[in-house]
Write the structure tokens for this entry.
Amino acid sequence: MNRVMKMKKRILAVLMATLMIFGIAIPTTAIDVDAATVNIDFSGRIQIPNTVQDRGVGKFLIDGKTRAFCMNHDKESPEGPATSSIQTDPYIAKAVYYGWQGPGQWSGFNGSSDAGIVFTSILISQHETGEPSYIGDWLTMDGANYGEFKDFVESQSTAQSGTTYTRYSTGDNDYQMLASV
């Protein structure tokens, strides 16, 4: 029995040595994905009702056409050149899919772009960072209710929205990242 154990250890040692040699001899290659360069267009802010000294929510378009939303409400609004990358987060994927101008846009926005942009941005930012923590289900804009939007998004499966979204970053940590479908 002792002899069998010694043999197993030797075989394992030879196998490990072989794997190490191949690991050193064969260079590893990382898959290098080129991030697309885009331009973030910032067109002002929407003031959040019933908030004191709030900076509001930024309105962003990517290359003048794709709506994008704040991911960190506490950071500065980006503008200008940025890179885009595909990220996986089912919650954010649902938020942008059912958010303002998403393919499955929630009907409860009642046609209000201000409510749609604010609610979508706040939902993503609260998921990412917990901020702004002072915004709750009570927030109402143009007849639309944030709590109802949040409940709607959270009740949806990822069958329609998928689990990925596009993230935009300037590469400067002082500025927030943005998300879109």
About this structure: The longest strand covers residues 36-46. The CA atoms of residues 53 and 107 lie 30 Å apart. The longest helix spans residues 2-25.
